[in-house]
């Protein structure tokens, strides 16, 4: 059995020395607030008063009546859908080309990964300048109508601005994971396929993609959860503007709790977000395991 | 995959060239935001508005933007706040997580199994589902906000599960029990065994985790924004945000401020590029 002490006393001493500090901080910061959050959803706390009244489930009823929440959730789903697809498509293509033995491929890899090193706050500000000044200037000097006004002042274009920045930020990161997948592919299998006369198309869809399933699972999981929780870039690129049309759900929850001072409803909405993310992760892990076994 | 490139042919060459050119174009697109920010940080406002693209500025170049930004965003102060918070958080989480993981692997008791599963499961909880009760417990009840040490405490707590998870996998698969037994025969206590024998062996995975945690702590905005309200203790992302809000019309100053914020991490990346890239990949694949 275990080797952390034979006598119970020694074992407990080691538990206190080794595991207790880490485990208690984890409980204090993650588990206790998470559980306390359920209690918060049953109260009418406004963040200031010392007393809270238990008001039962009415905060949850409020969530269903909160039209802004549902529209931000709808927008988030749309944002997640396009971001996840585009990020992974771009990342996969980059990885495919950059494992072909291209000259300077390490340089390219390092460059494409750079945006991911920088915090979302700064990225959002950088692109705010690009969209509101640089591209408008480009539109004025070239006469290209698409850039004549700032993308950030038009609801649907501002949405695409968010997606573009996300793709720019995340694709280099996912590219690295796909590259790790490509490098792990057995050259024997690919050569055998070529000898057997497989076309490039067949090689890609019959061999490479099925063998890359583990990489796809990792990347989809990472992009999905990151896209659902995105806040920084949203805050500094569009700030939810114009007219609150680009407010993703994380920003809505933040404002519900800390700006509108409606902690109970805010937390109930946050739990809803949690359920979605948890369900997606569950499905993804399950599918990944199943596919791996089949392949 | 390299074998197929050695087989020549015109078609192959066309593909190679088109790939190389498309990579170059994409690379240019990916880098242009950085280039424009740096370029415009040396220009006067009028030139930035008139022609953000042009390399030659009519009124010439200036370094004033940097001087103003450096002073107005209190760069040194927020930089050292970030350094303090990131450094201590990383140190503490590395030590505590490796010890916890070590106990989990070696003790194999019920406590370990339960805590480990809780940590693994907690990794899917979005930060947004914790931040509101976190603020109400530590702010309203315990009055612990507005201290850098509280932020360190929270960083450590949130990074714990992933760090323990990664250490656990490594210890389980690549630290042989026989080594520790040998150390124990020589009369080592458990903590001695851990720090003298086991911890040095964890070095590859420790460096991976340090990189992941440093990047996450350094760039974090949402958690620090909830914890640190006072100007004197703001980290770099917070003071950048505050600075941008105040000076958003002074493009030159803003550009210089952004360059200053990005510079430390880019310098680190230039020096430790290989380690950072392999660390990030290892972290993603393992968790």
Automatic annotation (TrEMBL), chain B:
One Pfam assignment: BPD_transp_1
Signal peptide: none
Ranges that cross the membrane: 20-42, 82-105, 111-139, 151-171, 251-272
Location(s) in or outside the cell: Cell membrane
CDD domains: TM_PBP2 (cd06261)
A single cellular component GO annotation: plasma membrane
ABC transmembrane type-1 domain span: 79-272
Biological processes annotated in GO: transmembrane transport
Entry keyword set: Cell membrane, Membrane, Transmembrane, Transmembrane helix, Transport
Bilayer topology annotation: Multi-pass membrane protein
Domain of life: Bacteria
Family statement drawn from the similarity comment of this UniProt entry: Belongs to the binding-protein-dependent transport system permease family.
Protein name: Carbohydrate ABC transporter permease
């Amino acid at each position: 059995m275990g080797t952390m002490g034979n006598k119970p006393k020694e074992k407990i001493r080691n538990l206190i020395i080794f595991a207790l500090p880490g485990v208690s901080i984890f409980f204090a910061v993650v588990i206790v607030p998470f559980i306390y959050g359920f209690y918060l959803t049953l109260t009418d706390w406004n963040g200031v008063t010392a007393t809270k009244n238990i008001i039962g489930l009415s905060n949850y009823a409020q969530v269903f009546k909160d039209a802004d929440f549902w529209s931000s959730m709808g927008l988030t789903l749309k944002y997640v859908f396009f971001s996840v697809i585009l990020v992974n498509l771009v990342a996969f293509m980059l990885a495919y080309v950059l494992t072909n033995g291209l000259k300077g491929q390490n340089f390219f890899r390092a460059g494409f990964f750079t945006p991911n090193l920088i915090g979302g706050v700064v990225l959002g500000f950088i692109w705010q300048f690009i969209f509101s000044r640089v591209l408008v200037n480009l539109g004025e000097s070239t006469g290209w109508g698409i850039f004549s006004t700032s993308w950030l002042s038009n609801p649907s274009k501002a949405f695409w601005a968010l997606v573009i920045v996300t793709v720019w930020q995340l694709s280099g990161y996912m590219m690295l994971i796909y590259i790790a997948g490509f490098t792990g592919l057995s050259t024997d299998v690919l050569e055998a396929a070529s000898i057997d006369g497989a076309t490039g198309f067949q090689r890609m869809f019959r061999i490479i993609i099925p063998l890359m399933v583990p990489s796809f699972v990792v990347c989809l999981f990472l992009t999905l959860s990151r896209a659902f929780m995105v806040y920084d870039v949203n805050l500094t690129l569009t700030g939810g503007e114009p007219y609150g049309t680009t407010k993703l759900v994380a920003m809505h929850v933040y404002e519900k709790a800390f700006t509108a001072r409606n902690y109970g409803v805010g937390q109930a909405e946050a739990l809803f977000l949690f359920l979605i993310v948890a369900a997606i992760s569950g499905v993804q892990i399950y599918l990944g395991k199943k596919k791996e076994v089949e392949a | 995959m390299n074998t197929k490139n050695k087989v020549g042919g015109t078609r192959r060459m066309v593909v190679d060239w088109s790939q190389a050119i498309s990579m170059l174009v994409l690379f240019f697109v990916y880098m242009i935001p950085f280039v424009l920010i740096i370029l415009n940080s040396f220009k006067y406002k009028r030139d930035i508005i008139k022609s953000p693209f042009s390399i030659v500025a009519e009124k010439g170049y200036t370094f004033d933007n940097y001087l103003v930004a450096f002073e107005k965003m209190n760069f040194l102060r927020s930089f050292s706040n970030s350094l303090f918070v990131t450094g201590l958080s990383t140190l503490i989480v590395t030590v505590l997580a490796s010890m916890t993981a070590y106990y989990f692997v070696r003790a194999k008791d019920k406590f370990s199994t339960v805590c480990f599963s809780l940590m693994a499961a907690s990794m899917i909880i979005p930060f947004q589902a914790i931040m509101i009760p976190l603020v109400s417990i530590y702010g309203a009840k315990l009055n612990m906000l507005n201290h850098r040490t509280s932020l360190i405490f929270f960083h450590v707590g949130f990074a714990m599960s992933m760090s323990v998870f990664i250490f656990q996998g490594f210890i389980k698969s690549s630290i042989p029990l026989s080594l520790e037994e040998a150390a124990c025969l020589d009369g080592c206590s458990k903590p001695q065994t851990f720090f003298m024998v086991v911890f040095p062996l964890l070095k590859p995975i420790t460096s991976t985790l340090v990189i992941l945690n440093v990047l996450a702590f350094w760039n974090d905005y949402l958690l620090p924004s909830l914890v640190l309200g006072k100007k004197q203790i703001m980290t770099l992302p917070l003071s950048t945000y505050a600075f941008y809000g105040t000076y958003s019309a002074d493009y030159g100053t803003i550009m210089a401020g952004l360059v200053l914020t990005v510079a430390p991490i880019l310098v680190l990346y230039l020096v430790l590029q290989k380690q950072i890239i392999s660390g990030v990949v290892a972290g993603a694949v393992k968790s």
